[in-house]
Structures are given as structure tokens and as C-alpha cells.
């Protein structure tokens, strides 16, 4: 639908119902996000199921992590060039194909390949946000964007109990048959409900050199972060990967700066509002991943340790479900706060709540109800923060670059979660004790993890406060805080 037709349809009220478009895109984002995290409850069982080692199984998580981080900005840029709806459908096809590979897979290489293909679909969320901006009336963009953005956190929070319930007493392949069906439903829904937004006015082509360079940087960096604990942080392999990432980054930065149509516009990305938002995204991502990674372990540790709570895997995952629910409920609240007070205030408020939640976790870590309550506070803060970020990004970039800019912001969240997994994993696997013949993390290790997440949250508050203070900046470009025009 060309831009003039979109505008006329908006004025005449003949565009698809805003709620239907939002629901279709949000379901696609939720399915994609859940698929990335649903593997976690399976990880302890996969060495036996796939006849492999725990280090081999770790690649089922690492492959999706690396593929998602690499593909995010690339998918966003492809959307800006070739059409956002078309590229969104491609990502959902990738999710369907990856899920099928895992559903049929009985060997580690096949499952790793399937997880990598699934990871490429994570770009659906930033592309979906950009579609909402172009299709919906200005008065609906803020709320819809908030809901879509929150799917990153909501999907991760709901995937754990959902997957645990689904595989309880059934074959693990059922999980990926379910995602095959869900991805197909999402694909059909988007194709049926979401029209094509206005085509990009940019004459840009794909920056192949920039894409290759970024892929090399992210693969080297994330591989070092993911495997540093197993290989040794000072081992030649890890040090070599960090040095390689730094060297390619230096070349890539110069390449992107000189390109007329770069994959990542460093001039736009270095603008204060975009840069500070992305730094905050890394910190919030770090604090968010710690919730699923550490709290679930603490809930499952034997009560005989005097700090573990002795819950089953299923029960522990269900205890984290309320955090996903409040995360979803807080996203429309985030849009209203942003419209009234500005996205900077909303983002800062979210970071304050995340910090408060981690402080409560430290105080109440010996009670199940205390950890559930703290996780809900953290979930509320994450929902507010994640929903405000794309609004801040879209007010600071040209409309022809919204998909790639949102993809970069999602990449920053991924860097936060991946670095969180590496750092916190190192703490929980090195500070251990033996309980009835089993090696378990010490109570001090959990204290350190919670303090690390709290520190990241406090730093996020500081960076959020560095954002420009004008709440009306760019409001008309995204519809944030702009009332509907009178008919």
C-alpha cells in the first residue's frame, strides 16, 4: 500500500482495525521471543537425550544467541530496503523452518542448526515496531509500540513455565512441533491482517561489507563471552577472539563512517538520544536475564542447603510466570506515561523499579513468596523500560531507518543478556560447594549475582537520566503523546 494510499485510508478509516494489526504483530513477536528461551528447561536433559556432553548442549543456546544478535540489524536494514512486511514474513518462515529442524532432530548438529535458524527470526520484533509506526493512526502508535516492544521480555518470562508444562511427561520434540504450529499461525495472521506499509524512500542498497564485518565482530565477541567460562578467560582462544573483535571493530567503524548508505549509520547512532538509549538497553538486558538465570536456580536448590527453596523445575518456572504477566500489563501503562511525561521519565521509572526489585531479592531471597514478589517488581520495571526504548529511538532517526535503528536497539539488549549469561554463569559455576555429592552454587554466589544485577540497574538509572529532558521532542513523528486529529 503506497504512502499516499495509507494516508487516505487512515483519513477515511478504511485501514485494517488497529487492534487486529497490533494483535497479529504482537503474536508474531511473542512467538519469536518465546522460541529463543523455551530451550532453557530442556538443557539439563539434552546431554542424555542427544547423547552428548553438557558443553555440546550449551551450543544449542549459543547458536541461537549468536544468530539472533547477528541477524537483528541486518534484518532491520533489509526491511528498510525491500519492504518491512515482506522481510517480517521471511523471519517467520525462518522460525517455522528452524522449529521443524528441531522437531525432527535427534542429533546435536541438527538441533544446533535448527536453533541457529530460529535465532535469525528475532528481527521480527524491531521490524514489527516499524510497521506499526507506518500503518497505525498517530494516536495508537505509542500504545501499540509499547506492547510490541514488551514482547521481548514477556516471551522470555512466559517461555520457561510454558515449555516446562508442555514437556512435562511428554517427548521434548513436542515443544518444537508446538512452535512449528505457532510460527505458521503467526505467518498466516500477518499475511492476512497486516497490509504492506509505505515503501522506503531511500535509494540505499544492502551494505554487504558492513554486514559481514558486524557478523564477524558479534560472532567473535559472543563466542568469547559464551565459552570464556569453559575455555578460561585468559586462554589463547578467548584472548584471540577478543582481540579479533577489537581489530574488526576498528576497521568496521571506519568502513561504516565512509559509506553513503551504511548498515548502521554511526552518525545517527552516535546522537545522544540514540546512544544513551542503547547503552541503557545493554544494562537493562543484563539485569533482566539475571532474573531467569539465577532466581530459577535458587528456587530449585535443595532446601537442605539452608538457602535453596527445594522446588521442582516445573514449580520454579511457574513461579516466574507472574513476572511475565505484569510485564505485559505494564506495556500500555508505559505508553500512557510516555505520552504524559515523556519516554525519558518512563524509562527512568522502569530502571528504578528494576533496581528496587533486585534490592528486594537480596532481602527476601530465603522465601518463595519474596522472590516471586521481587520478580514481579522487576517485571513491571522491564515492561516500562523496554516499551519506552523504541519510542526514544524512533524520535531520533529518519523514518527510512526506523527498522534498522530498532534492530540495533534490540541487538544492544541481546548484548546485555549474553554478557549477563557469561558473567553470572562464571560466578555460579566457580563459587560452588558440594551437597550430597552434587556441586551447587554457594549462597555467596547468589548474593554476588543479585548485587551485580542491582549495580547494572543503578547504572541504567544514571544513563537514563542523561537523555534529553524535553518530553515533546519528536512526538509528532511517532505519535507519542499526540492526540487524534479531529474528524
Automatic annotation (TrEMBL):
Residue ranges crossing the lipid bilayer per the database entry: 56-75, 87-106, 144-168, 174-194, 206-225, 231-253, 274-295, 307-329, 341-365, 371-394, 444-467
Record has Transmembrane as a keyword: yes
UniProt keywords, alphabetically: Membrane, Transmembrane, Transmembrane helix, Transport
One cellular component term from this protein's GO annotations in UniProt: plasma membrane
One Pfam family cited in the UniProt record for this chain: MFS_1
Molecular-function GO terms, alphabetical: transmembrane transporter activity
InterPro entries assigned to the protein according to its UniProt record, in alphabetical order: MFS, MFS_dom, MFS_trans_sf
Keyword Membrane belongs to the record: yes
Coiled-coil blocks: none
Compartment(s) where it occurs, according to its Swiss-Prot or TrEMBL record: Cell membrane
Top-level taxon of origin: Bacteria
Domain Major facilitator superfamily (MFS) profile: 21-472
Membrane topology value: Multi-pass membrane protein
Protein name as catalogued: MFS transporter
Organism expressing this protein natively: Micromonospora pisi
Amino acid at each position: 500500500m503506497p504512502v499516499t494510499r495509507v494516508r487516505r485510508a487512515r483519513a477515511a478509516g478504511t485501514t485494517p482495525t488497529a487492534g487486529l494489526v497490533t494483535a497479529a504483530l504482537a503474536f508474531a513477536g511473542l512467538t519469536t521471543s518465546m522460541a529463543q528461551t523455551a530451550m532453557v528447561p530442556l538443557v539439563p536433559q539434552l546431554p542424555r537425550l542427544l547423547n552428548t556432553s553438557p558443553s555440546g548442549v550449551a551450543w544449542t543456546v549459543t547458536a541461537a544467541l549468536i544468530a539472533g544478535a547477528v541477524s537483528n540489524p541486518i534484518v532491520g536494514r533489509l526491511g528498510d530496503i525491500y519492504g518491512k512486511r515482506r522481510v517480517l514474513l521471511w523471519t517467520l518462515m525462518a522460525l517455522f523452518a528452524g522449529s521443524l529442524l528441531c522437531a525432527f532432530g535427534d542429533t546435536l548438529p541438527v538441533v544446533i542448526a535448527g536453533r541457529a535458524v530460529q535465532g535469525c527470526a528475532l528481527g521480527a520484533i524491531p521490524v514489527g515496531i516499524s510497521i506499526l509506526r507506518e500503518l497505525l493512526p498517530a494516536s495508537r502508535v505509542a500504545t501499540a509500540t509499547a506492547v510490541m516492544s514488551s514482547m521481548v521480555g514477556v516471551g522470555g518470562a512466559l517461555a520457561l513455565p510454558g515449555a516446562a508444562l508442555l514437556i512435562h511427561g511428554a517427548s521434548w520434540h513436542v515443544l518444537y512441533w508446538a512452535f512449528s504450529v505457532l510460527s505458521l499461525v503467526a505467518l498466516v495472521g500477518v499475511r492476512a491482517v497486516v497490509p504492506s506499509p509505505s515503501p522506503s524512500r531511500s535509494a540505499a542498497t544492502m551494505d554487504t561489507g558492513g554486514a559481514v564485518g558486524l557478523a564477524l565482530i558479534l560472532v567473535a565477541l559472543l563466542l568469547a563471552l559464551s565459552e570464556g567460562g569453559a575455555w578460561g578467560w585468559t586462554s589463547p582462544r578467548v584472548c584471540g577472539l577478543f582481540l579479533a573483535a577489537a581489530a574488526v571493530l576498528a576497521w568496521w567503524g571506519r568502513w561504516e563512517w565512509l559509506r553513503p548508505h551504511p548498515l548502521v549509520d554511526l552518525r545517527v547512532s552516535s546522537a545522544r538520544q540514540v546512544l544513551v538509549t542503547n547503552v541503557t538497553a545493554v544494562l537493562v538486558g543484563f539485569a533482566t536475564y539475571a532474573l531467569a538465570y539465577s532466581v530459577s536456580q535458587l528456587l530449585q536448590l535443595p532446601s537442605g542447603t539452608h538457602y535453596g527453596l527445594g522446588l521442582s523445575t516445573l514449580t520454579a518456572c511457574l513461579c516466574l510466570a507472574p513476572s511475565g504477566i505484569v510485564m505485559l500489563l505494564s506495556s500500555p501503562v508505559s505508553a500512557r506515561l510516555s505520552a504524559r511525561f515523556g519516554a525519558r521519565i518512563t524509562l527512568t521509572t522502569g530502571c528504578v523499579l528494576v533496581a528496587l526489585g533486585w534490592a528486594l531479592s537480596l532481602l527476601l531471597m530465603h522465601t518463595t513468596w519474596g522472590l516471586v514478589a521481587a520478580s514481579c517488581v522487576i517485571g513491571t520495571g522491564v515492561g516500562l523500560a523496554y516499551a519506552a526504548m523504541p519510542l526514544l529511538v524512533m524520535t531520533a532517526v529518519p523514518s527510512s531507518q526506523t527498522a534498522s535503528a530498532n534492530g540495533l536497539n534490540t541487538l544492544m539488549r541481546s548484548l546485555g543478556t549474553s554478557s549477563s549469561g557469561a558473567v553470572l554463569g562464571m560466578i555460579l559455576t566457580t563459587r560452588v560447594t558440594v551437597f550430597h555429592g552434587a556441586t551447587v552454587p554457594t549462597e555467596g554466589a547468589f548474593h554476588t549475582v543479585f548485587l551485580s544485577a542491582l549495580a547494572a540497574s543503578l547504572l541504567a538509572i544514571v544513563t537514563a537520566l542523561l537523555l534529553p529532558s524535553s518530553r515533546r521532542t519528536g512526538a509528532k513523528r511517532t505519535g507519542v503523546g499526540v492526540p487524534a486529529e479531529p474528524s
